[in-house]
Amino acid sequence: MTGSSDLTEKHRALRDGQIGDEYLYDLIQEFGKVHFVTAAPDVARLLQHADPQIRYMAINVLTFDWDLLKYRDAVEPLVADPIYYVRQQAIMGLGYLLRGSRDVRATKLFLQKLKSVDEDGSVREAAYEALLDMWLPPSKRAPTFEQVRSGLPELSKRATTTLALSRELGRAKASGDSERVLAIAEEMRIFVKNWDESWQARVDWEAVAAIERGEPPTQ
Fold first, then answer.
1. pLDDT, tens digit, for every residue of 200-219?
2. What is the mean pLDDT of residues 172-178?
3. How confident is the model at residue 154, as a pLDDT?
4. Closest by CA position to 127, among listed 203, 188, 44, 67
5. I want to staple 126 with a disulfide (CB 3.0 to 4.6 A). Which of 78, 80, 81, 88 is the partner?
6. What percent of the chain has pLDDT above 70?
7. Contact predicate 124/113, CB 8 Å
8. Which residues contact 174 (CB under 8 A, 6 or more apart)?
9. Could you write out the DSSP letters of every residue in 16-52?
10. DSSP string computed for 45-111
């Protein structure tokens, strides 16, 4: 494990703007893994970073890794992020932070996302899972991060795979490898198409209707 003095130095460098953008993703991921919550205010500022991959990881750390409910209002605007995998992660993270709460504001927001036919399928499914996290009794939903991840293997796979492909696509563009850019773009298109054709089959629409009525679903 990274020593505390090393983490403190890295945090100071982050706070002083001395960390290059190319190192931010790995740095905040490291902070999350070792539970270096001292850096939370500075990680929260990265929710506004220009790089969507940085925004994605900042959400992950503040919600799943650190479970910091006080950053709910900072994460919530990213449900409308222009990048779909950031929207997905924001919804998943908020659902985790608000698990069991039946939060009215988040319920309305997630129902809107779920029912939006113009929204990306992974975002709509994330909204469905987040609704269940908030409305089902704790005994029927996974209460910990690791259990949430194991209970949502396909959704997690979508987030992880698309982020990895997006990073690879960025590297291919930067290197000027046009053939590789086209190949990765086609791989992403096929992956997204297959996902969007299958996710709705896993949704319990009766449970969604119950939530709309303000009733806990039976599962």
1. 777 888 999 999 999 988 76
2. 90
3. 55
4. 203
5. 88
6. 86
7. yes
8. none
9. TT-S-HHHHHHHHHHHHHTT-GGGHHHHHHGGG-SSH
10. HGGG-SSHHHHHHHHHIIIIIT--GGGHHHHGGGGG-SSHHHHHHHHHHHHHHTTT---HHHHHHHH
- Which pair of tokens denotes residue 106? 């988040």
Instruction: Name which of 6, 59, 15, 12 is nearest 34 in CA terms.
Output: 6
The pLDDT score that the predictor gives to residue 1 is 43
Task: Decide if 89 contacts 122 (C-beta within 8 A).
Answer: no
Residues in the chain: 219
For the cut 80, the answer to whether the pLDDT of residue 92 exceeds it is yes
Q: What is the mean pLDDT of residues 177-191?
A: 86
3-state helix, strand, coil in the chain (%, to 5): 80, 0, 20
Task: Considering only CA atoms, give the Rg of the chain.
Answer: 18
DSSP 117: T
Contact 118, 144 (CB under 8 A): no
Tokens representing residue 163 in the block: 């982020």
For 112-169, the three-class secondary structure string (H helix, E strand, C coil) is: HHHHCCCCCHHHHHHHHHHHHHHHCCHHHCCCCHHHHHHHCHHHHHHHHHHHHHHHHH
The span from the CA of 169 to the CA of 165, in Å, is 6
Q: Which amino acid appears at position 38 of this protein?
A: T
Query: Phi and psi at residue 68, in whole multiples of 5°?
Result: -100, 95
What is the average pLDDT across 1-10? 77
pTM summary value: 0.77
